[in-house]
Amino acid sequence: MFQDVFIVGATGKVGSTLVRQILEKRDTDASLHANPTRVVGVASRDNFAYSPRGLSPSQAYGFASRNFGDVNRYTDLHELVEAADIGTRTSSSSLVFVDATPVLDEMTRFHIYVVGTTPYSIVTANKNPIALSDYQTFQALTGNPRRYGYRCSVMAGSDAVPFMLDLRDLNEALLSIEGCFSGTLGYIASELDKDRKFSEILSEAHKKGYTEPDPRDDLRGLDVARKIIVLARSAGCEVGIRDIKPRPFIPEEYLKNESIQDFLANSVNLDQHFSDMLKSARKRGNTVRYVATMNLNQGYPEIEVALKEVPLESSLGMLKGTRNKIVIATECYPQDRPYIIEAPGAGLEVTARNIRRDLIGLLTERTSTNHTVNHRR
Ligand SMILES: NC(=O)c1ccc[n+]([C@@H]2O[C@H](COP(=O)([O-])OP(=O)(O)OC[C@H]3O[C@@H](n4cnc5c(N)ncnc54)[C@H](OP(=O)(O)O)[C@@H]3O)[C@@H](O)[C@H]2O)c1
After folding, report:
1. What is the pLDDT at residue 355?
2. d(CA 280, CA 274)
3. Coil vs helix vs strand at 259
C-alpha cells in the first residue's frame, strides 16, 4: 500500500530537504518499505507538479531546486486538492498534504478544508494554523490523530507534542510544563553565561543566520508563545494566543521601529543591562534562560513566557547552545522526577526526518518491513 504525499512548500528549506530525504532514504522503494511513499505532488507559492502515479525522482528533485520545467500555475490552494482528486487512488492508499510553509490564514483555511471535507490528511511543520487559530479550530484539525500530524510544530518534531497528546488518552493529569523553546534565545543566553557582550552575541547570531532576518522577531518571544500554546492545547487546555503576553528578551523600549542595522548598532546600550543581570543572578547561584511555563492551578492553565533566573544546576540552567528542552510534570512523572526531553529546536535534516515520522504515524495499516539490521558474523 502506497502513502501518497503532496508537499506544499517543496521549494523551501524544510520542504526541499524532505523531498531529498524521502528519495535518498528510499522511502519510495517497495522492497525496503512495507508502506512505501509516493511523492505525487510538489508545490511552491504559485507552481505545482502532480502525477497520480508519483513524480519521477528527477521531477521532484528538479522542482525542489526550482528547476520547474513543465509545471502548473495556481492561485488558490484548493486547486491542489482538485489536482489530487484526479487519478486512480484506491481505498487502500492514502494521500497526505505536507505543509512546509510559514503561511497563516490561507493555510488555516486549507487545513480545515482538507480535514473537514476530503479523505486526505495533513502533516504540518507550520505551527501557525494550530497556534494562532481559535481553540475550536485546533480541536477540529487535531481531533483525529490519524488525519493530522503536527509534531514538527514544536522542537523540530521531538516527542513533546506526542507526549502531550497521550496524556489525555491515558487520563493522566498534567501538572506543569517548563521549557526553553527558542534555539536563538537559548544560544544568546548560553553565550551570555560566558561573559560575552549581548551586542556582540546578537550581531554574530544574526550574521550566522541563527536569528530571523529581523532579530526582534525572536527577541519578542512570540514564537515561543506559539509553541507553548500548541503544547498546552495538545494536553487539552483551552488557551489561545490572546491569553499570553510574552515578556520580550530585551526591555520593550528597545523594540522600537528602526532599521535592522540601527537596532543591531544600538544593542550596545543593552550590554551593561545584561552584564548586571548575570552578575546579580550568579550571586544567587543562578543564570538566566528564556522560559515558557505553564502551571495548572485547579485545572486552569497559567502561562508565562519570560526571561527568568533559573538555578545554574537545574535542567534548564544546564541547557547549552541552540538546543531546546522541556520539563514536564504529570501525575505519573511528578515535579521531583519530571519527564525531560532535550532535542534540537530546529534543523532541516531533523525536521524532515520527523515529518517522515509523522507520515508513518498516519498509516492506518502500518506493517513493519521486518528486515534484520545486523548480520551474524
Ligand atoms: N527551518 C527549520 O528548522 C524548521 C523546523 C521546524 C518547523 N519549521 C517550519 O517549517 C515551515 C517552513 O520553513 P522553511 O524554513 O522551510 O521556510 P522557507 O524556506 O521560507 O520556505 C517556505 C516555502 O513555503 C512556500 N510558500 C510561501 N508562501 C506560500 C503560499 N502562500 N502558498 C503556498 N506556499 C507558500 C515557499 O514557496 P516559494 O519558494 O514559491 O516562495 C517555500 O516553498 C515554517 O512554518 C517553519 O516555521 C522550520
Report:
1. 98
2. 10
3. coil
For the chain, first and last CA: distance in Å? 34
Cβ atoms within 10 Å, residue 38: 21
3-class SS at 44?
A: coil
CATH number, domain 170-344: 3.30.360.10
The structure's pTM equals 0.95
State residue 91's pLDDT score.
55
Range with lowest mean pLDDT among 221-225, 258-262, 369-373: 369-373
Is ligand 1 within 6 A of the CB of residue 305? no
Write the CATH number of the domain with boundaries 3-158+349-361. Answer: 3.40.50.720
Question: What pLDDT is stored for residue 88 in this prediction?
Answer: 60
Residues of the chain with CATH 3.30.360.10: 170-344
In which residue ranges of the chain is CATH 3.40.50.720 found?
3-158+349-361
18, 44, 67, 80: residue to mutate for ligand 1 pocket, most atoms within 8 A of CB: 44
